[in-house]
Amino acid sequence: MRDDPRTPSRPVSGAHPAVWTGRATNRVQWLLAAAGAACLALGIELAVDSSWTGGSVALLMSVTGCVAAGLLMLFGTLAFVHVAVRVDGDALEVRCGHMGLPRRRILLTHVVGADFEPRVTPRQWGGWGYRWRPERGTAVVVRRGEALVVRLGDGRTFTVTVDDAEAAVRFIRARLRLRPAGRPADA
Predict the structure, then answer these.
(1) Span 111-168, pLDDT tens digits
(2) Beta carbons of 175 and 112 less than 8 angstroms apart
(3) Which residue, of 84, 108, 139, 173, has the greatest Cβ tally within 10 A?
(4) For residues 108 and 175, is the Cβ–Cβ distance under 8 A?
(5) Alpha-carbon distance values, 8 to 16, 18, 95, 99, 112 (Å)
(6) What's the CA gap between 71 and 134, in Å, rounded?
(7) Which of these three, 12, 46, 78, is where a domain ends?
């Protein structure tokens, strides 16, 4: 786990830690982002300096296609270059990419359990990114490897690939044990 140096995540004198942070990165996504930038650059080049002889409609379609494909690839991949996970006493928060979008916040009062999954692959979820599968639940998959699986009170699950997912599981389980008596799991 690579801890965020701005937030304390280590216990102080035997106390429970206040916050757990973790992240995961996928460097392959940078290659896909570069391909998107290349498509975008090609579209701009065609629009600005074109000696296209196939007609203006074909040129317009080519420029539009290159720019649209480039933007989709560029922003679609940059959103999932990395994921940051933060768990405090109240909630689990997942932020994707450099802008933190998409973002998911799950209150710990909605969590009934947490499990460690040693091997999650993008193939299991249908690719990289924010995924939903009716039989499996929702996931944020930025790379293959270990993952945190959170079981919610309504029967759904949320999976996120993150470094040192076992520590996150221990932290969440400790927080669930600290829940005041009589407080419902899905309040």
Answers:
(1) 999 999 999 999 999 888 889 988 889 999 999 999 999 999 988 999 999 999 999 9
(2) no
(3) 139
(4) yes
(5) 11, 7, 19, 22, 25
(6) 29
(7) 78
Q: What is the DSSP letter of 50?
A: -
Which structural domain, as residue segments, surrounds residue 47?
29-78
Task: Enumerate the β-bridge partners of residue 82.
Answer: 25
Structure tokens given for 2: 């690579």
Determine contact, residues 159/149, Cβ cutoff 8 Å. Answer: yes
What pTM was computed for the model?
0.71
Go through the chain and tell me how many residues it has: 187
Alpha carbon distance 161, 118 (integer Å): 10
Nearest to 176 by CA among 155, 156, 150, 158: 150
CA–CA distance, 87 with 172 (Å, rounded to integer): 8
Q: Spell out the residues 6+ positions from residue 71 whose beta carbon is closer than 8 angstroms to its own.
A: 36, 40
Q: Which residues contact 58 (CB under 8 A, 6 or more apart)?
A: 52
Q: How far apart are CA 179 and CA 177, in angstroms?
A: 5
Same domain, 158 and 123: yes
* Total domains in the fold of the chain: 2
Tokens of 73: 């690839």
53 falls within a domain: yes
